């Protein structure tokens, strides 16, 4: 068994707004080997010294040690039946199982904690009574070697291992002492710790894994500009050639309409037809709906007028669902509009450009999209995808990432390439795809935000020139009498845009070089409009910052000197500078440590330039997964960040993903899709639940008897104090029962309980899109409406919503 150790974050600072008190555990006498009872906790006491087995060391994958008991849930254990006389021994604080490192079985194998994997024998223990009222714990995977202390030492801090039973050796016998653990959640509804921004429910998008092209963009053709290297001889790579009847053809990649090549079709002899066909993203097929109109454009060139047939067909071309004909002008490149209405529905259709008589025609661009029926509010956006994002409850979206900076050379990512008629926009080399058509870019994104009624934050290339940024200000906000204001109107948006937040770069080294580039652009922007919020494209921080000019764990940053200059510049203009920090949220382990580092980062921002206005924005909760474990980590991070006054937007990367087309890694989309279907992944439902539970005031929430790295609660109350939500993350492997006390709030009626619970690696698929989905139930508070008891399932995110209010004077 190979298991890679996971770094456990050191808990270096208290969470703002969430107080964690030690467990209250009352010991009784040792008991014999217990029957399985996951509700009972035990101290496992080394018989000779009285020290207690626990997970008390920090660092990378630490061993279990024996230490003096400290009222810590990491020193308490649950015992469950594993079958065949063996037990699973689970740490109460972490929810992880007592195991050996990498399944080691020999003498000296180190004992640690790991997720319970059911079938691995090193996680199964035989508990055997001894005549002296102690027990031994024998490991199934090792020939029943015993849980032992290193070299028989029993002093506090001694690590544990496996060893053969040796008569008289200390550190091999233990007492199981049952405890009564008090687990409490106390919600202090009158103690507001933060005014929560609605924008803590947000997602980001760029073209990773075809979020845009082949994803939300309503354009059905993939490879629309014929730029991909040939697959069939002489045929652009996303297209294939075909002939019917006795027709003979030649194909070539000819002089381009744009980019480096266009597609030449030549019908040389015979009868029938010759053509090229496209099946969408990576040739997965086009989804067409019977009786619905589709609109298109095709750019063609021929030396003389020629008839060109355009059609929807089934996958092998044996059935034609719709067709039309355009006649070329014979005067060079020209774009022709057309419409098609298929007679049949087909999720795997193709689009064909076809000659039915001898001729030579060049194709430079092709575009097909659903009519208004299939687009979101008239935009070039798939309606089903946008509808899913609306249902997600998003309050902000971000456009950018590696596509525009921070991960590689992207000199072609410039705003001007995204203006004008998409037919004529240049083909550029993108970070995620080398043949970007720029058909859907920054301004399409801003229009999507407007249509959804939410904040849209685009990222700009930090290497844009100041003169081009001055033009951008005119394009966004200028009157139509200006050159670029007129271009905005020509592009279909005569009114000025309303966006007032822009990111400069992404995941950059925020150093002297970045500062000089930032200042050059900020001077242009802030001199025009100091109400625009500029976001610094920073990256990640893993270590708490104690000296802002000597930073460790900052990735590309080792000092906040450039940050100080940016804050001073913002203060000079009376503007706000925001700073984008990214968190890793593949699992809850390690998230708390990053939050602590973020706390220290925000602390120093407030002291480097007193009086400067700033916020921390988290534009990427990042992972390489879209499963339940990632959902819980996202929920944990959002919970924590909703309590922090310095944090504004919290956005999960990435918003979208096409199933089966994971070309770029970063397998982390929240909304999944095929060409004909859309569904949510577990982290999607976290956002939806968070949107539902939103109240504008985060209140102090105190936890007792918990490990705050795996269990967390955030509570929010409405301005009128009539509605309260409590959002709880339990990422441990055990269900945990808590008693909640509502201070200065009386619940009226039942609480609505929404729970998202599943095994950590569970996901949703096109064939089982609701495998993981929220379940709603109700909970009746105790008489009086001030307390209730609830069992939070293992691996769960639970949102409880209560109506009521502040009790009358003299009440609790």
TrEMBL record:
Name this protein carries in UniProt: non-reducing end alpha-L-arabinofuranosidase
Single Gene Ontology BP annotation: L-arabinose metabolic process
Signal peptide interval: 1-27
Domain of life: Bacteria
Enzyme class: hydrolase
UniProt keyword annotation of Hydrolase present: yes
Family: Belongs to the glycosyl hydrolase 51 family.
Domain Alpha-L-arabinofuranosidase C-terminal: 620-796
Entry keywords, A to Z: Glycoprotein, Hydrolase, Signal
GO molecular function: alpha-L-arabinofuranosidase activity
Assigned EC number: 3.2.1.55
InterPro entries: Alpha-L-AF_C (IPR010720), ASD1_cat (IPR055235), Galactose-bd-like_sf (IPR008979), GH (IPR017853), Glyco_hydro_b (IPR013780), Glycosyl_Hydrolase_51 (IPR051563), Ricin_B-like_lectins (IPR035992), Ricin_B_lectin (IPR000772)
Pfam families: Alpha-L-AF_C (PF06964), ASD1_dom (PF22848), RicinB_lectin_2 (PF14200)
Chemical reaction(s) catalysed: Hydrolysis of terminal non-reducing alpha-L-arabinofuranoside residues in alpha-L-arabinosides
Keyword set includes tRNA processing: no
């Amino acid at each position: 068994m190979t298991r890679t150790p996971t770094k456990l974050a050191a808990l270096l600072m208290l969470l703002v707004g969430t107080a964690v008190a030690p467990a209250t555990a009352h010991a009784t006498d040792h008991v014999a080997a217990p029957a399985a009872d996951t509700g009972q906790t035990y101290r496992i006491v080394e018989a000779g010294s009285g020290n207690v087995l626990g997970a008390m060391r920090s660092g990378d994958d630490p061993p279990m040690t024996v230490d003096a008991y400290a009222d810590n849930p990491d020193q308490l254990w649950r015992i469950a039946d594993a079958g065949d006389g063996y037990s699973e021994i689970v740490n109460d604080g972490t929810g992880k199982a007592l195991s050996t490192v990498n399944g080691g079985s020999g003498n000296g194998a180190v004992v640690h904690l790991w997720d319970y994997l059911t079938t691995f024998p090193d996680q199964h223990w035989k508990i055997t009574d001894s005549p002296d009222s102690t027990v031994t714990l024998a490991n199934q995977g090792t020939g029943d070697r015993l849980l032992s202390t290193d070299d028989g030492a029993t002093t506090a801090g001694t690590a544990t291992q496996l060893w053969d039973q040796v008569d008289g050796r200390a550190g091999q016998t233990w007492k199981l002492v049952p405890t009564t653990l008090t687990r409490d959640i106390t919600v202090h509804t009158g103690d507001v710790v933060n005014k929560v921004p609605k924008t803590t429910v947000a997602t980001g998008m760029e073209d990773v894994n075809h979020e845009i092209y082949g994803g939300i963009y309503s354009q059905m053709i993939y490879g629309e500009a014929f730029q991909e290297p040939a697959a069939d001889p002489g045929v652009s790579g996303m297209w294939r050639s075909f002939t019917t009847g006795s027709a003979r053809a030649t194909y070539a990649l000819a002089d381009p309409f744009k980019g480096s090549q266009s597609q030449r079709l030549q019908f040389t002899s015979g009868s029938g037809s010759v053509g090229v066909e496209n099946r969408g993203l990576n040739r997965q097929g086009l989804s067409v709906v019977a009786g619905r109109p589709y609109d298109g454009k095709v750019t063609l060139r021929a030396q003389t007028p020629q008839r060109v047939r355009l059609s929807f067909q089934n996958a092998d071309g044996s059935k034609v669902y719709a067709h039309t004909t355009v006649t070329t002008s014979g005067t060079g490149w020209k774009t022709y509009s057309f419409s098609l209405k298929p007679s049949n529905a087909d999720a795997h259709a193709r689009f064909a450009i076809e000659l039915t008589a001898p001729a030579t025609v060049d194709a430079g661009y092709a575009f097909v999209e659903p009519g208004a029926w299939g687009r979101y509010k008239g935009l070039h956006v798939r309606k089903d995808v946008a509808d899913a994002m609306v249902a997600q409850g998003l309050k902000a979206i971000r456009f950018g990432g590696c596509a525009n900076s921070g991960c590689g050379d992207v000199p072609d990512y410039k705003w001007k390439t995204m203006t004008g008629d998409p037919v004529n926009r240049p083909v550029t080399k993108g970070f995620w795809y080398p043949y970007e058509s720029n058909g859907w870019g920054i301004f399409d994104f801003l229009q999507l935000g407007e249509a959804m009624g939410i904040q849209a934050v685009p990222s700009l290339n930090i290497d844009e020139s100041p003169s081009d940024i001055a033009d951008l200000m005119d394009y966004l906000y200028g009157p139509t009498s200006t050159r670029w204001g007129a271009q905005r109107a020509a592009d279909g948006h005569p009114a000025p845009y309303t966006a007032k937040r822009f990111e400069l770069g992404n995941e950059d080294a925020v150093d002297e070089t970045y500062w000089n580039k930032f200042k050059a652009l900020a001077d242009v922007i802030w001199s025009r409009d100091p109400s625009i919020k500029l976001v610094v494209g920073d990256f990640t921080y893993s270590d708490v910052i104690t000296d802002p000019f000597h930073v460790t764990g900052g990735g590309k940053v080792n000092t906040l000197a450039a940050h100080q200059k940016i804050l001073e510049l913002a203060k000079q203009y009376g503007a706000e500078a925001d700073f984008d920090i990214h968190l890793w949220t593949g699992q809850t382990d390690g998230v708390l440590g990053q939050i602590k580092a973020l706390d220290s980062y925000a602390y120093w921002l407030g002291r480097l330039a007193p009086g400067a206005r700033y916020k921390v924005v988290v534009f990427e909760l990042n992972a390489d997964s879209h499963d339940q474990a990632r959902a819980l980590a996202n929920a944990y991070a959002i919970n924590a960040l909703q309590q922090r006054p310095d944090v504004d937007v919290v956005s999960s990367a990435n918003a979208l993903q096409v199933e089966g087309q994971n070309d770029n890694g970063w397998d982390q989309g929240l909304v999944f899709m095929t060409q004909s279907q859309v569904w949510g992944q577990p982290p999607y439902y976290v956002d939806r639940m968070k949107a539902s539970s939103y109240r504008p005031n985060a209140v102090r929430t105190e936890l007792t008897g918990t490990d705050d790295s795996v269990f967390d609660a955030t509570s929010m109350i409405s301005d009128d104090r009539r509605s309260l939500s409590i959002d709880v993350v339990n990422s441990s492997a055990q269900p945990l029962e808590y008693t909640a006390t509502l201070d200065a709030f009386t619940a009226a009626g039942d609480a609505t309980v929404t729970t998202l619970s599943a095994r950590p690696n569970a996901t949703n698929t096109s064939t089982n899109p609701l495998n993981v989905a929220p379940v709603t139930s109700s909970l009746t508070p105790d008489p009086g409406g001030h307390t209730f008891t609830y069992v939070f399932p293992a691996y769960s995110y639970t949102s409880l919503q209560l109506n009521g209010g502040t009790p009358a004077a003299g009440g609790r």
